Amino acid sequence: MSRRLRLASASLIVSFGAALSGCVTVGPDFRQPDVMLEDRWLETLPDSAQTAPAAQAAWWTAFNDPVLTALEQRAPRSRSFSAWCRS
């Protein structure tokens, strides 16, 4: 076996060992931490914030990029893209 092949094999074994070590379960004394969640947001949105779905539908306009805007306008008309998504 050549030196290069032995080095590659050893590297592969060490890599797999390191990857599998992340799959080890936690110790027997592990206890799930208590998490307190708020019922609502602590801060309110400013009056200028738009929360309507229409404001979120055109998210790409925030970038002021004419190429991105043109792509987004052309995308719904592209049947090949829709067919690709369904496949």
Task: Give an overview of the whole structure.
The protein has a domain at 60-87. It is an all-alpha fold. It is built from four helices and no strands. The longest helix is centred in the first third of the chain and has 19 residues, at 3-21. Helix content is 47%, strand content 0%.
Brief synopsis:
The chain is an all-alpha fold. It has 4 helices and no strands. The radius of gyration is 26 Å and the shape is flat.
Count of discrete alpha- or pi-helical segments spanning 4 or more residues? 4
**Which residue ranges are poorly predicted, with pLDDT under 50 across at least 5 consecutive positions?**
none
Total number of beta strands: 0
Series of H and E elements: HHHH
- Return the average pLDDT rounded to an integer: 77
What percent of the residues sit in helical stretches (DSSP H or I)?
Answer: 40-55%
Largest sheet: none
What general form does the structure show? flat
Strand percentage:
under 5%
Q: Radius of gyration in whole Å, from Cα?
A: 26 Å
Q: Which structural class do you get from the secondary structure elements? A: mainly alpha
The first-to-last residue Cα distance is 46 Å
State the main characteristics:
87 residues, mainly alpha, 4 helices, flat
Strand and helix layout:
Elements: H1 3-21, H2 53-57, H3 66-74, H4 79-86
